[in-house]
Write a structure and sequence with these properties.
Protein name: Deoxyribodipyrimidine photo-lyase
Number of domains: 2
Cofactor: FAD
Pfam family, one: FAD_binding_7
Largest sheet: none
Bound molecules: flavin-adenine dinucleotide
Structural class: mainly alpha
Binding site for FAD: 96, 188, 191-198, 284-286
Shape: globular
InterPro entries: Crypto/Photolyase_FAD-like_sf, Cryptochr/Photolyase_FAD-bd, Cryptochrome/DNA_photolyase_1
Strand content: under 5%
Number of strands: 0
Helix content: 40-55%
Distance between the termini: 27 Å
Order of helices and strands: HHHHHHHHHHHHHHHHHHH
């Protein structure tokens, strides 16, 4: 278990000296960044070359033979985790910050399924992303320079095959694209931190897997849940996303948030009506990350979205995909519509967005104000 997250979560918690776990992402991220950097870099004042050299075979983190054989048989050469990581780091990483929410372009790494089954190490992905960014700023505790500098140094000392990665600590990025690469890498590493944050919650929040028992969801309804699953709500972005999910097993992160929030808030369904559907459909399904996403979307759990902040799928669609390319791709009946009207709900839409938003705010305000049910009465 300790190798699933990037940080060793028990040691991290001890390292922070806190009695209570972090409940909010930003302070967690700040502490996590410093911790991870200190664990992946040698102690201050020690050069990597002065450390005993580990055998290269260890540094390459070889997969267990059985898993490697199964992967070779099941996954085409070009789609292997390491290849995919290389392609992403050498390509889309630079524009990741700018494009990650532009779901029509799907600029994510697509690595979640490999990270989730352990076919790709989160630590290796982290260190290689830092290398790619070649960031060298030692001053900022959130900066990536320390680890990147160490990695570059180690690359020389240990003769790893990392072309172009050799930079001394403290040196500036060599070309203008390095600043973009740094932004891309920071933004991507932040997502790896979100992954750790949900794993951390699962470890330290005793309620993480039983909020539905602690909170009274009985006032909510599954009336429209099936229409949502089948992409028949009449709200184009929701229907397009649910069609993609059903057809391919994939769904970009922003659309997971929008569709989950729409089900929980606008359609007033309990999150437990949607969580198992994602479980069945997602190729990268992971019990902890899926639950974390659903808790966030339904304003439950640590650092959940506030109950009054509800994403409007039409506003989101106009913002992240102004031409409506994504809707046209998944809903052919909308392919010929103008950019102005393609995002608009159909006349037969299940709910009016404004009215259902107001209803959700009122309902969740009351629901979250009720005291949690004590656990000892549950058994
Ligand atoms: C309702 C909901 C359900 C989700 N269910 C799952 C699930 O079952 N399995 C799963 O792997 N992810 C889940 N996520 C998180 C996220 O949507 C996916 O990890 C991401 O879309 C995977 O695409 P990628 O590999 O291209 O990510 P990238 O954008 O390349 O990000 C890199 C890695 O960071 C991690 N990551 C990215 N975004 C998040 C996030 N919001 N929360 C936690 N970790 C993140 C993933 O491991 C990902 O592979 C869910 C999110 C929501 C809102």
């Amino acid at each position: 278990m300790e190798d699933v997250p990037l940080a060793d979560l028990d040691e991290f918690q001890e390292h922070t000296g806190r009695k209570e776990p972090y409940r909010v992402f930003t302070p967690f991220y700040r502490a996590w960044s410093g911790y991870v950097r200190s664990r992946l870099a040698p102690p201050p004042g020690v050069r990597a070359g002065e450390l005993p050299t580990a055998p290269l075979s260890l540094l390459r983190w070889p997969l267990p033979a059985e898993l490697a054989a199964a992967l070779s048989a099941a996954v085409p050469e070009d789609e292997r985790p390491e290849r995919q990581l290389d392609r992403f780091l050498g390509g889309s990483l630079q524009a990741y910050e700018e494009l990650r929410d532009r779901y029509a372009q799907d600029a994510g790494s697509g690595l979640s399924r490999w990270l989730n089954v352990g076919a790709l190490s989160a630590r290796r992905a982290y260190v290689l992303a830092l290398d790619e960014a070649r960031c060298e700023d030692e001053r900022d505790p959130l900066a990536f320079g320390g680890a990147a500098g160490w990695r570059a140094d180690a690359a020389v000392q240990l003769e790893l095959a990392l072309p172009g990665s050799v930079e001394g600590p403290g040196s500036a990025p060599r070309d203008p694209s390095a600043a973009t690469a740094r932004t891309g890498a920071e933004s991507w590493v932040r997502q790896l931190a979100w992954r750790d944050f949900y794993l951390y919650q699962a470890r330290f929040d005793a309620d993480f897997f039983r909020y539905e028992e602690r909170v009274d969801l009985s006032g909510l309804t599954e009336e429209h849940a099936e229409a949502w699953r089948q992409g028949r709500t009449g709200v184009p972005l929701i229907d397009a996303a649910m069609t993609q999910l059903r057809t391919t097993g994939e769904l970009p992160n922003r659309l997971r948030m929008i569709t989950a929030m729409f089900l929980c808030k606008n359609l007033l369904a309990p999150f437990t009506a949607g969580e198992p559907w994602f479980r069945k459909q997602l190729l990268d399904y992971d019990n902890t990350l899926n639950r974390g996403g659903w808790l966030w979307s339904s304003s439950l759990g640590f650092d959940a979205s506030p109950y009054f902040r509800i994403m409007n799928p039409v506003v989101q669609s106009r913002r992240w995909d102004p031409d409506g390319a994504y809707i046209r791709r998944w809903l052919p009946e909308r392919a010929g519509m103008s950019a102005a009207s393609v995002h608009e709900p159909a006349d037969r839409a299940l709910v009016d967005l404004k009215a259902s938003r107001a209803r959700a705010i009122e309902t969740y305000k009351q629901l979250l104000a009720k005291p949690s049910r004590p656990l000892d009465r549950l058994t």
